[in-house]
Design goal:
Bound molecules: ligand C2E, calcium ion
Number of strands: 21
Structural class: alpha/beta
Radius of gyration: 32 Å
Mean pLDDT: 87
Number of domains: 3
Low-confidence stretches: 127-135
């Protein structure tokens, strides 16, 4: 094991080789810190950051074609501390087009993200330039101090947005709260909900630009006794003072509106959605800053997918209990997954005219060892939150395909079954390939699998959905828009997305019985879907009256407790062999 001085010397030798001998500037760049300053022998060789250096290397690249030879190499390392050291190198360069030149280099090495990086280079040809500057240890220490300040700044500053990072934010919060003890403070955590999609859709550099823009505006919204920071990828935190909830709300709405510059907004095709969690810090609180950040996060995480029009939630103590409960369920669910406790249930879908079962929807049930049945609403949102949903949905798809294969092998005529796919999938790059691969593994004709995606996915990720819809159709799958009428989509959606099936949500059906406007909407939706060539399925039919009513409106297919609840796949098999409505 080399000691640290030897490591720096070995690294410097390597760097000198790339730089002077082989001119492999690309190999050099991984050693260069984001904070680098570089002083070369000429005025235009003074660089203040990594981009300048890369530009400079690029220029050099065209200049030096020959491999130079080095002689009389001498290296001397001085340790400033465990994180920083300087290597002085003296060497002679022999090149066909240059006389023998003596070069002196000072290279300052420092730790960045756990790796040794060059923070400063001073490169001099002593005869031409007042190059002795860094060859004096006192001066080197001054240079180090400047660098040390920068390193410290880097430790508390986010390199993308140049506002505080998590560390910097926590330090600033604790200082401000200490200095202004009488003030009411709120800790706010917010997240750009569709950031992953934005990154993939517009590229990472545009994603970074969006974050910078947000950071600039958040910072602008803070006064001198407030602070903000970027805590992780797409999550920011703010410490605001406040008088009362109402004025704080006003400020947060304003922040929501002003967060992205108009120019930037125009460039983005998809809306940027924010989820905001707020923790009102009690006076004289003894909690740690990370604990407060956690509380704001708990509130943020509880903003439900389904109530997205409300994007601000305040932390309450019960949320902590809910969080414990959720963690417990999640842990149990992951064990249950291993034990194969998630079962395939299917709910029949029937032709409203004939009453015959013509299709089904796959719905998952978690049956515990003790026989208790846990409904999807208890675990699906948790799986979505923790990113496990993708694996889970593939697993359930495989179960469905296994079952269909079984039935086909037994000589049954199968019918199309629809399967719910979380909207989180659609940003996965190889998603459809995997989906298709599973279906093909069991040789299920694609026309028997209907892909169900909820309305909100179509609204928020419109462009991506258009691509997905056409890919699905090319592969021969059917596409259904689920939960239509839950408040997001407009009728115009139907003309944009070429889905095959429109599934009308129970709430629209229930509303139509009591409210004339809802009735008209339902009627028009069915009419328009038909005009677009879609099949209409209405969910949640519980009464005869509803059924008759839908028959009048020429709805094609029904699904609901009136005919059957979701039932175990085996039971479903028996079910569809005989008509269920008479
Ligand atoms: P969904 O896709 O809207 O499924 C329809 C829900 O309505 C089902 O709830 C079904 O049991 C219920 N339902 C059907 N008929 C009636 C009725 O007449 N009255 C009432 N009140 N409800 C009725 P379930 O099975 O609890 O599933 C809830 C949601 O969980 C589903 O809503 C679906 O979004 C999701 N889900 C279920 N299984 C999966 C899965 O494997 N993957 C994913 N990603 N989501 C799933
Ligand atoms: Ca569904
Ligand atoms: Ca539904």
């Amino acid at each position: 094991m080399l000691d640290v001085e030897e490591q720096w010397i070995a690294l410097t030798r390597k760097v000198v080789g790339f730089y002077f001998v082989s001119h492999e500037y690309e190999l050099l760049t991984p050693f260069i810190s984001k904070q680098i300053s570089w002083i070369g022998t000429l005025e235009d060789e003074i660089c203040h950051n990594k981009d300048d250096i890369l530009y400079f290397f690029n220029k050099e690249y065209g200049l030096y074609k020959d491999q130079y030879k080095l002689s009389n190499e001498q290296y001397h390392a001085v340790k400033i501390n465990n994180q920083t050291g300087i290597v002085w190198a003296t060497l002679n360069i022999n090149a066909p087009d240059l006389p023998n030149v003596l070069v002196r280099l000072s290279v300052v090495w420092g730790k960045e993200d756990g790796e040794w990086k060059i923070f400063h280079v001073h490169n001099s040809i002593p005869d031409h330039i007042q190059g002795e500057y860094y060859f004096n240890i006192e001066n080197a220490k001054v240079a180090y101090q400047v660098m040390d300040e920068r390193v410290k700044l880097a430790a508390t500053t986010d390199s993308v947005t140049h506002i505080k990072n998590r560390n910097g934010f926590c330090n600033a919060v604790s200082k401000l709260m200490h200095e202004h003890r009488k003030q009411n403070y709120a800790l706010i955590k917010f997240k750009v909900q569709n950031f992953r999609y934005i990154n993939q859709r517009y590229g990472y550099s545009n994603g970074d630009r969006l974050l910078e823009n947000i950071a600039k505006n958040v910072k602008r919204s803070c006064n001198q006794e407030e602070t903000c920071g970027r805590i992780e990828k797409d999550t920011f935190a703010i410490l605001y003072q406040f008088e009362d909830r109402e004025s704080l709300n006003q400020r947060l709405y304003q922040l929501n509106d002003d967060l992205i510059d108009k120019r930037m907004k125009r460039k983005m095709f998809s809306e940027v959605h924010l989820l905001i969690g707020v923790y009102l810090i009690p006076q004289n609180s003894k909690e740690s800053i990370p604990a407060m950040l956690d509380k704001a996060l708990i509130a943020l995480n509880q903003i439900n997918e389904t109530q997205r029009e409300k994007n601000i939630l305040y932390y309450q103590e019960e949320m902590m209990k809910q969080q414990y409960h959720n963690n417990f369920i999640l842990e149990q669910a992951l064990i249950a997954f291993e034990k194969d406790e998630f079962k395939l249930f299917i709910q029949p879908q029937f032709d409203i005219e004939s009453g015959k079962t013509v299709a089904g929807e796959a719905l998952t049930r978690w049956i515990t060892k003790s026989g208790e049945m846990i409904m999807p609403n208890e675990f699906i949102p948790l799986f979505e939150q923790h990113g496990f949903i993708c694996e889970f949905d593939f697993h359930m798809l495989e179960k469905l395909c296994q079952t269909l294969r079984h039935w086909m092998d037994a000589g049954m005529d199968i019918q199309p079954i629809s399967i719910n796919q979380s909207r989180l999938h659609i940003s996965e790059p190889d998603y459809l390939e995997r989906f298709c691969h599973i279906v093909d593994m069991y040789s299920i004709p694609h026309c028997y699998i209907t892909f169900e995606l909820t309305e909100s996915a179509f609204v928020e990720e419109n462009e991506r959905m258009l691509t997905l819809a056409s890919q699905l159709h090319q592969m021969g799958f059917q596409l259904a828009i689920d939960d239509f009428g839950t408040g997001y989509a407009s009728l115009s959606l139907l003309s944009v997305v070429s889905a095959d099936i429109l599934k009308i949500d129970k709430s629209l059906l229930d509303g139509s019985e009591v409210n004339q406007r809802s009735y008209v909407i339902l009627e028009k939706v069915i009419e328009m879907a038909h005009d677009m060539g879609m099949i209409v399925v209405t969910e949640g039919i519980e009464t005869r009256k509803q059924l008759d009513f839908l028959r009048e409106l020429h709805c094609d297919i029904g699904q609901g407790y009136l005919v059957s609840r979701p039932i175990a796949a085996d039971e479903f098999k028996r079910h569809w062999l005989s008509p269920v409505l008479s």
